[in-house]
Amino acid sequence: MDDSKVIRKVVSDNLKNKGLKVIEAKNGKEAIIKFNQFHPNIVIMDLMMPEMNGIDAMKEIRKLNENVKFIVLTSKNKNETDINSLDAVDVSSFISKSFDMNKITEEVIKISSSCNNISDINNKRILVVNNSKALSHIVNCLLTNEGFEVEEASTGVDAVEKYQEFKPILTIMDLSLPLLGGFEIMSQIREINNEAKFVILSSKSQGNDINKLLSVIKNALI
User: Fold this and answer.
1) Residue 96 and residue 117: Cα distance in Å, rounded?
2) Domain boundary among 96, 117, 144
3) Do both 217 and 119 map to the same domain?
4) In angstroms, rounded to a whole number, what is the distance separating the alpha carbons of residues 143 and 106?
5) What's phi and psi for 50, nearest 5 deg?
6) Which residue of 128, 139, 149, 197 has the fewest C-beta atoms within 10 A of its own C-beta?
């Protein structure tokens, strides 16, 4: 249960690929109705939803089945959440959404719209470089919905090859990648195109990493 269609699709697709049957709901009230209809063993629940929030929805579902398992998926971290409320409904697992998806879209649109090169005006190609298929898929869905054409790469070597073939207007880059790290990839891409633009999507955003990053490229940190 999540009010974000993109998040629901990503989670649903991944679970279906594992052979599980998945039912979706976009708000708390719909979650209760569908729980009553389909009687799932596990409920994945966002806390912030319209019409009825996740905590209240879980309380109502718990009344229907005291054995159901809850997994909380939310943009809040555990310290920001009412732990007593989670304990009251006996949450089995708490998973934090680790980045601001709206921020990604905003940065991409801002950067792509600022291009002065005439050949770039109609270029809507974005390269997403991340070794997490789930995260890449989320970003892909977000940007595709905004009208961008998206290509994905999961390793540094793959990223450089796809950059040459795909010629994106912007590359969304994770810093921690197998085989070839994010800084090395950006350096190689800058050798191909010294005006290449990057958005960094990473948990590394301080100290020596920032200094190293600034020496490679002007970027937007998410």
Assistant:
1) 39
2) 96
3) yes
4) 10
5) -75, 160
6) 149
Q: Which two tokens stand for residue 143?
A: 């940007």
Question: Do residues 189 and 160 make contact, with C-beta atoms less than 8 angstroms apart?
Answer: yes
Q: How many residues does the chain have?
A: 222
Tens digits of per-residue pLDDT, 17-64?
A: 778 889 999 888 999 999 999 999 899 888 878 788 888 999 999 999
* Count: domains in the chain: 2
Which of 27, 31, 85, 37 is CA-nearest to residue 61?
A: 31
CA 91 to chain centre: 23
Q: 90 with 134, same domain?
A: no
Q: pLDDT tens digits for 83-107? A: 556 666 778 877 766 555 566 667 6
Q: Do both 91 and 147 map to the same domain?
A: no
Do 155 and 117 sit in the same domain of this protein?
yes
* Structural domain for 90, as ranges: 5-96
Residue 164: predicted pLDDT: 94
